[in-house]
Structure formats: structure tokens, C-alpha cells
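Example for reference:
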Amino acid sequence: MEEPYKVNDKITAREVRLVGDNVEQGVYQTRDAQKMANEQNLDLVEISPTAVPPVCRVIDYSKFKYEQKKKTREMKAKAQKVVIKEIRFGPNTDDHDFEFKLKHAKSFLESGFKIKSYVHFVGRTIVFKERGEILLLKFAQALEDVAKVEQLPKLEGKRMFLILTPKVAAPKK
């Protein structure tokens, strides 16, 4: 695996801007900056290769790599995982079933989940596409106070999908 940063002898620039702790900041010849790093038993690491001249830092490279890995691990841990809950309808879904699924959908949205509701057409029920679309739009309308539509009803194969995301709670006045 290729290293993301150039270190010590791998730095090809003639001059570098040196930054870091316990070094005199400024522009140096690369070999002079390398000597300064060696005197402190540290590494010369090219932090910003696109700058003119490239920016280098005198640090312990293995410790620096460890810190970078630690930061990325923390970022991944803090990243929210989007959970999508699915709610299935048939084209002839009854009012009671609709209300029951609506109640579940509200609790999912209030918990911060996305909802992928779909009408599954089995056999010849595919001729009732408009019933499915009306059902999904009625579903979205019933949830408009707690959700916003991310994707309008769309037919893919034997299923018509509607994707809803929770609305961010508006600050109360």
C-alpha cells in the first residue's frame, strides 16, 4: 500500500516550508530541513505537497500515522447509520390496515428512521397501478406533518416505491 505522505528521502522538492514544534519556521533547502529532523531523531513529512514551496513538518511519523488512523476511526464511529424501515401495501389495502401501518410509520419517523413504503402488485393486480399510486400519495399526505417526501411514487417491476424522511423538528417559539 502506498503511503499518503512523502517522508524523509522521498521528498523531491528542492525547497520546503518547514512548520512544527521546536523548529525555526521558514523556507529551507530540503537537505537542511532533513538534517534538522535527523538531529531531533524525528521525520520530515510532506504535509501539503501542492503548496509552493511544499509544506513539511518535523514529527514522529509512526505517531502521526497512528493519530490519523485514530481520527478516521472516531469519524466513522460518529457517522450516523441511516436505517430504512419498509412498509408494504397491497393495491387493495383496507382502511384499517392503512391506519395500522400509518401508526407504525409515525413511530418509525419519530425515532429518526427513513421509510420506504411500497405497493406490491401480485399477478394481475398490476392493472391497478393508479390505485397503488393514490394509496402511496394518501400515505405521504397523512404523514406530511412528521415526514417529507424524498422520492415520489415510482414503479419498478412489480413494486411502486415511495421514500419518506423524517422532518427535522422546527424550533418551538
Q: What stands out?
A: The chain has two domains: 6-75, 84-166.
